[in-house]
Amino acid sequence: MSPPAIRVFNTLAQQKVPLAPIVPGKLGIYVCGPTVYSFIHLGNARTFTSFDVIVRYLRSRGFEVRYVRNFTDVDDKIIKAAQETGEAPQALADRFIAEFQKDVAGLHLIEPDVSPKVSTHLPEIIAIIQKLIANGVAYESNGDVYFQVSKFQGYGKLSRKKLDELESGTRELAGGDTLKELKREPYDFALWKAAKPGEPSWPSPWSAGRPGWHIECSAMSSKYLGETFDLHGGGLDLIFPHHENEIAQSEAASGKTLCHCWMHGNFLDLEGAKMSKSLGNVVRLRDALAKLDGEALRYFFLSTHYRQQLSFSDKMLADAETRLSYFYETLKKTDERVAGKDFGQGPVHGEPERFEREFHEQMSDDFNFSGALAALSGLFNEVNLLCDKPPVKDKAVVGRTLVALRAAVGRLASVLGLFQDEPAAWLLRRRERLVVARGIDTAKVDALIAQRQAARAAKDFAEADRLRGELKAMNVELMDTPAGATWKVIPTLQAED
RNA sequence: GGCGCCAUAGCCAAGUGGUAAGGCAAGGGUCUGCAAAACCCUCAUUCCCCGGUUCGAAUCCGGGUGGCGCCUCCA
Questions:
Q1: Distance A434 CA to B73 C1' (A)
Q2: Which of A40, A247, A375, A436 is the most exposed place for a label (fewest CB within 10 A)?
Q3: Complex-level ipTM
Q4: pLDDT tens, A276-285?
């Protein structure tokens, strides 16, 4: 039974549409990457994680996906940041590209197939600007080049804006007066900016200068995915003006539709407000990863649909990690049960494939992350049931079923980017992090456990319970197993207000 | 001022015309010397409010209320 056809919410159409690849079996996707002038924050991380899972899922469905995510490394904000640090702008941009790669490694994001940079695509950018001038939709003005919005009749189709409404919105543009004189219409936007003294610049037919903000994506997407491609992704805030302008530039240059389907991820909120660099209410990804496992953060991001706003708190993050430890405990137990055993051929219990089927139904419907997670929960519940309270006696049947379920977990996990670690290693690493966070004296823990073992051997259960209580006061929970006592840190969650 | 999104249990969150997924927390149980883990059971006659359409609405329409976003750099 093949999984259902995939439907994707297209911002342009304002509804879910069937995924219809231009070339059967293949998909091209362009995701707007970071402008590298500082560290990325959790909101950025959420968007990139969403598209990471989307690309992984499309590949798992057999599509040959070409995934392009750019770096905007030439930009006004980079110049400004470099002036503050005293670095060369390109050096600063390169530094933050390296920092981005480090941060993102902690989230286990897959590498895009192409990660183009503006600074190495100036010829392509200049070529498309020349084409726009030749097509009569762009004009030079004192060394700058502007796109004449009124010449592109589809303008506003993505963001549902009308030109007359935009006009009033632009009146308070910073530095307005000089800019006003250079532009024919107030909503025209820059394709090329002549450099001021001290600013980095590249030669062009119009001036030594640099590209405007939006043109790089038009140039790079057409280079790597063609003039028309399947999917274009980014954060909600890029719809206007960035994506709107991209459409105008690309379509005015090529005469073709830029992209069939536009996908936009929603924001991550911090205390009810959008997290953004300009508001200053940001939590850096790396600061979060210092306190929290990367997979736990991924799991948290997947707890709601990618088009839904997501609020976060320390408690929610800690809960995600606790949930992840349930999954890893289960995997550890399962692997111990199944490793190196041959259960032969034969029937299995129930219908092990039903969870994966449910997962596909959810993911096929515009990548319903939380629905997919529900399927995952069902799968783990079944695994635990078979391990601890098997509904059938035949151990070979149980074993074969566990093997089948474990394989399904592996497939779903690689789509979600979860459970990529060795269960025992992950659990130990989490314990160590909590030990440090709570300042637990592990030597004392070991000593108390030894004392308790002695008391239990002597059947002095009152003393054993007293020692358990003492450990509990240290936030340590003991688990007696046939192989001896192990322990874990209680992830005490102080009540929130 | 213009445009748009959202509102589901104590909390997080699916569901978008057919009678409320899943998770956390809580309570009870099985197991255990006691625990922990796991499993089982319980936990929204109801989906912000008021009207309307319909045999039937959390889901569609109209009007409120509350929260958020875009219109200016932002994932």
A1: 39
A2: A436
A3: 0.96
A4: 877 778 999 9
